[in-house]
Amino acid sequence: MASSTQSPRSFASDTINPKVLKCQYAVRGEIVMVAQQLQQELKDKPGSHPFDEILFCNIGNPQSLGQQPITFFREVLALCDHPALLDKSVTQGLFSADSIERAWKILDQIPGRATGAYSHSQGIKGLRDTITAGIEARDGFPADPNAFFMTDGASPGSEKDAILCPIPQYPLYSASIALHGGILVPYYLDEATGWGLEISELKKQLEEAKSNGISVKALVVINPGNPTGQILAEDNQRDIVEFCKKEGLILLADEVYQENVYVPNKKFNSFKKISRSMGSGEKDITLVSFQSVSKGYYGECGKRGGYMEVTGFTPDIMDQIYKLASVNLCSNISGQILASLVMNPPKGVVHELIWMYNRSEMNLTSPSLLRRRESSHPWQGVRSQWGTLEDAFNKLEGVTCNKAEGAMYLFPRLHLPQKAIKASEEAKTAADAFYARRLLDATGIVVVPGSGFRQVPGTWHFRCTILPQEDKIPAVVSRLTDFHKKFMDEFRD
Questions:
Q1: CA dist list (Å): 143 to 127, 134, 317
Q2: In order along the chain (493 residues), what is the average pLDDT of each group of 10 residues?
Q3: Predicted TM-score of the model (pTM)
Q4: Nearest to 96 by CA among 66, 134, 70
Q5: 491/493 Cα distance (integer angstroms)
Q6: Rounded CA separation 299/61 (Å)
Q7: Rounded (10°) angle between helices 333-342 and 125-139
Q8: Coil, helix or strand for 166?
Q9: Element (DSSP H or E) covering residue 458
Q10: Burial letters for 172-202: b for 16+ Cβ neighbours within 10 Å, e otherwise?
Q11: How far is residue 311's CA from residue 287's CA, in Å, rounded to a whole number?
Q12: CA distances (Å), 132 to each of 25, 250, 265, 308, 355, in order?
């Protein structure tokens, strides 16, 4: 006979690990979930909202916004995943010779030529060799394939340790640190100087943490910046390396936007290159560098490929890192292949023209510019879109927006009326989240509130990607402009 007494629920929010509750990821947060709901409502009942489509400006997800994948990449992946195609005569007419040659080379590096099998926990050795050669060519200094771990992602942190992170920061860091029980020690980028990273600020925050008994183990630097878009000057990078050496900090270099440089007077330099050029070897500085196939001109977010180069650790620590990598068995093979292709694209004049033509599929340049490639900028289209959005933001009442030098975002500041701030407090939400939700409801435009990235207390921002298709930019500008004027009039002090 069944008991009439109802069993208590085993799981509820108050029984979940508090680290999970503390973990937040604003890029896929409440605003985005509401946007997805509105998108479904528009599909089910057209005309149900004052806009006819949702314009997702919240995330650096290029292919979801119309960017086409690189043909060379996809051909190689297809051939590697289905090697039987290589034995068919029709393949010669369907796939480029470059792709066929590269697929054979990669398959020879994969045990059993099986892309559906587990690999070595650090990644396929031949692909790591390819990445190593690419890093050596980029930096001009030796690299070790055994220092590379092919990844789907990485999450540092422990309950007694702290990590210095830039504010504003990419929310993955705060989320991962919270989930692993670590402590985030903020250092603030200087908005007044184009989001500058000041060594004096690093020293101040480190000393304050030490005085509070906090053990800081590492420093995160995002270059180019996310969400702020700045590119560090070489002298600044040298100062950061010296700071980490002096303080004994691990330097965690987030360099996933290294291909996304839009200004001719700035250049990306890896922290590996900077440190080695200073004469600092593995015994002098501990450095972990991150790269991803999700950004750059490739934008293969869904393939989840990337790597980290780990240098300066003792052999016993490397053994522990390998052990942790082994827990997940290996990263996905398609991502590993893509990472090797990114670091070793086709070579030669003809190959470069094919390569650049594929870039034109993504509205990054145009065929006419390809014929005079040496005088054109590879990010011509994106630079134009970024300039249009930046100008539009700076024309809005109470909005200021620094120039983006790289990455995929603008991070304008909102100077909101006190009535709007009070209204947000009554709604029990941050002022920029209040603005972003009202923007979504009125226009269908999705941005990420700056509070999700953290910011100087009392300031408000939002992050907007520069990736929408070119023909969508006028709609973004006009809708935002109309909304902002009405918002400011409604809450004017």
A1: 14, 9, 19
A2: 52 60 61 86 87 82 68 87 85 84 88 76 84 89 87 48 89 78 89 92 93 91 91 94 93 89 87 92 87 77 81 84 76 84 71 47 33 38 72 94 88 95 93 94 92 90 81 87 95 87
A3: 0.81
A4: 70
A5: 6
A6: 7
A7: 30
A8: strand
A9: none
A10: ebbbbbbbeebbbbbbbbebeebbebeeebb
A11: 5
A12: 32, 21, 28, 11, 21
Q: What is the DSSP string of 254-279?
A: E-TTTT-B--TT-----HHHHHHHTT
Under 8 Å CB-to-CB from 298, ≥6 apart: which residues? Answer: 69, 70, 73, 259, 338, 342
Q: Which residue in the block uniquely carries the two structure tokens 């923007």?
A: 439
Among 219, 168, 173, which residue's Cα sits nearest to residue 195? Answer: 168
Q: Which residue has the tokens 């790591």?
A: 128
Q: What angle do CA 267, 270, 273 make, to 5 degrees?
A: 110
Q: What angle do CA 202, 208, 211 make, to 5 degrees?
A: 140
Instruction: Write the pLDDT tens digit of every residue in 96-136.
Output: 888 888 898 988 888 887 777 777 777 888 888 888 988 89
Report how far residue 124's alpha carbon sits from residue 117's, in angstroms, rounded to the nearest whole number.
Answer: 11
Query: Parallel, antiparallel, or unpaired for β 250-254 and 287-292?
Result: parallel
Mutual angle of helices 97-109 and 333-342, in 10-degree steps: 120
User: Tokens standing for 425?
Assistant: 């407090």
